[in-house]
């Protein structure tokens, strides 16, 4: 079959480079709030076949012939330039959607685990997942009004994190705060890959 | 054109057709055409399906939207079809040679240039 009908680049079309970041954390930790405060939110429907792996998790006994499960989710898009866009995916919080995590995590730059200090245990599952899969991540403690305020070091100890995993306090409602969280993550990923995040010599200025 | 006697459902009834009916029951893309969520897809110039291939309306809708590069998730959001269905349709169009799928990075992203571009983009927000 002929795959070389044309080359869009030849027609002057800019082909965007894309990257994605996962936003994880327990139910109500502020995932959607964070995505909405920094990016353009778009709705997405999925009707995913249940994989073998999820059958054990998603108990479908008694539901004859149910082979797909419907999930409505949002994603966020930040268009930096015509040729560069960043996508933010909130991970489905309920355990029956675990089967979607591998797909979402595959090829991601890294992940943000949102923690609510009133329910810190809710983010254990996310932390475990990213540790096991070697996905670089940061923990962002969403400072809810009235929630006890802890030092990042305390959260680091409570979650038993590697000392190199950054922990930052944030307010997911505020754009600047959400921006700081994402900057912390990408800086962390750069450091892990052996580069110096402070060095900007080879970087192209954003236009 | 829908015959008047067939118009027995209104908009509130939701989709009349199960999502994977559009793909004739196929739930995964054709072998060898993995389609990632943020892969970029773009139609070739003047796409013509191979002889004997008849495109479904959904194929044509997607092809029209892919005249300019789009990502798989943006496309799924635009056409309001489940992303799994859109993936199968995209793999069809790719197999027909009338759409190109430009894969986003797979596995752990270590491309320093990409990371720095994203970091700079975030700083400039």
CATH architecture name of chain A: 3-Layer(aba) Sandwich
The number of distinct structural domains of chain A comes to 1
The CATH architecture assignment of chain B turns out to be: Orthogonal Bundle
DSSP summary, beta strand count of chain A: 7
Number of spatially distinct domains of chain B: 1
User: Which CATH top level class of chain B fits?
Assistant: Mainly Alpha
Keywords:
heterodimer, A: 207 residues, alpha/beta, Rossmann fold, seven-stranded mixed β-sheet, globular, disordered C terminus, B: mainly alpha, Arc Repressor Mutant, subunit A, three-stranded antiparallel β-sheet, 4 helices, elongated
In short:
The complex is a heterodimer of chains A (207) and B (125). Chain A is 26% helix and 27% strand.
Overview of the structural elements:
The complex is a heterodimer of chains A (207) and B (125). With 207 residues, chain A is α/β, with parallel strands linked by helices. Chain A has a single domain, classed as 3-Layer(aba) Sandwich (Rossmann fold). Chain A contains six helices and seven strands, in the order E-H-E-H-E-E-H-E-H-E-H-E-H. In chain A, helix 1 packs across helix 6. The longest helix of chain A is centred in the last third of the chain and has 18 residues. Chain B has 125 residues and is mainly α. Chain B has a three-stranded antiparallel β-sheet. Chains A and B meet through strand 1, strand 2, strand 3, strand 4 and helix 6 of A and helix 2, helix 3 and helix 4 of B.
